[in-house]
Predict the 3D structure of the following.
Amino acid sequence: MQRHINRLTAHLLTFAAALALFACDGSTSETPQPPAADGGVPDSGPEPEVPGAFLGVHPDARSCEVMLLDADGQLGAPVFGAAVEGRSLRRGDRLAVAFAHRADASIAAGAVGLVAANGGDGVQLESATCFDAAGRPLPEADAVLEAL
């Protein structure tokens, strides 16, 4: 179990380093930065009356790295369920999100919620890489952006 947690931590740190390099590319962003999320929600996802979407992943996935294209700048910071640890970084019209389940279990649908001004219309999933319990990439396991 400890080795699994160390691998997930290593993946999150690698992703954070890649995001730092992405953030230091010298470009400037005229898009206002979204407010930071200040807490998690249960695995059931965000409340239905909040406009937005959630990320769904393959049942074998234990962690994922996702890049979203948000041309309208409508996404706020992601909201992570209590069983999921995650980080995000916005740069211009892109929002990078990395998350992992705190235990060796499937990531429930709705565990990563996205609050969006107009329900997530126009937001595109640009890329996604998910990893299994051993930290190996799952080539067939993509994330899915589901509107609420």
Q: What stands out?
A: Residues 16-44 have pLDDT under 50 and may be disordered.
